[in-house]
Design goal:
- Strand 1 and strand 2 form a beta hairpin.
- Helix 2 runs antiparallel to helix 10.
- The chain is mainly alpha-helical.
- The longest helix has 22 residues.
- The N and C termini lie far apart (about 50 Å).
């Protein structure tokens, strides 16, 4: 029977999130926000040659957060990481772009619980779905912090619609389409701030339906706010 000695070393999730192995849970969450916004695939066009690399990096960031944000998973991961000789004072020298995430059924897997490290998706579609769901939860938290969403269901606020309405004509068309019978003039300009999503969608659901270019702009706007908070703290 194969043991932990026969298993490839784990990815350095601390390096992926650019944090110390001694980081607090809040620091891990803050780092996830920054790295996810920085590497999100929707910051480039769907046909961009950067898209595959961004998607892979985004999935690695989500696997890192999934593992390190849970104390039990983090403890198991730290044990394996220490066994394989990673430093306890730095993020290590591995390059996450060149590594694959260890999976439970990977060759040489053995009996060590690698499924605890990362989401352990069975295929690319499952990995993408998990990454989007995990990011969506944190995305809504970030928008609440900025006054762009409210309530447990993260409903869009007037401030959110004002921001979206200023992105492009494509976004304005999306907004008008969401309000049957609404005239463009009734949601344009200063009056846009009074609009609510009558169908009760969360801000992340609205985000996912925006034109791609507007997704990129909204992510950039949010990233600028998150990075500014990090610098000021």
């Amino acid at each position: 029977m194969k043991t932990i000695r026969d298993v490839n070393p784990p990815m350095d999730y601390y390096k992926i999130l650019d944090i110390s192995p001694n980081a607090t849970q809040q620091q891990i969450r803050d780092a996830y926000k920054k790295q996810a916004l920085k590497s999100h695939p929707d910051r480039v066009p769907s046909d961009s040659p950067e898209r595959p690399a961004r998607t892979k990096k985004f999935q690695q960031i989500n696997d890192a957060y999934y593992t390190l944000s849970d104390p039990s998973r983090r403890r198991d991961y730290d044990s394996a990481r220490s066994y394989h000789g990673f430093s306890n004072t730095s993020a290590g020298d591995s390059d996450p772009e060149e590594e694959e995430i260890p999976r439970p059924n990977a060759p040489g897997g053995g009996g060590f619980p690698w499924s605890s490290f990362g989401f352990g998706a069975k295929n690319a579609n499952e990995e993408e779905k998990f990454s989007n769901e995990q990011f969506g939860s944190v995305f809504e938290e970030m928008l609440r912090d900025e006054g762009l969403a409210e309530g447990q269901e993260a409903r869009p606020t007037s401030k959110f619609w004002s921001l979206v309405g200023g992105l492009s004509g494509g976004a304005m068309g999306f907004i008008v389409a969401n309000f049957p019978g609404a005239l463009a003039g009734a949601v344009a300009g200063n009056r846009l701030g009074a609009v609510r999503d009558a169908r009760g969608k969360s801000v992340y659901s609205v985000f996912q339906e925006l034109p791609q270019g507007d997704k990129a702009k909204l992510l950039s706007e949010l990233a600028a706010k998150v990075f500014a908070h990090a610098i000021g703290s």
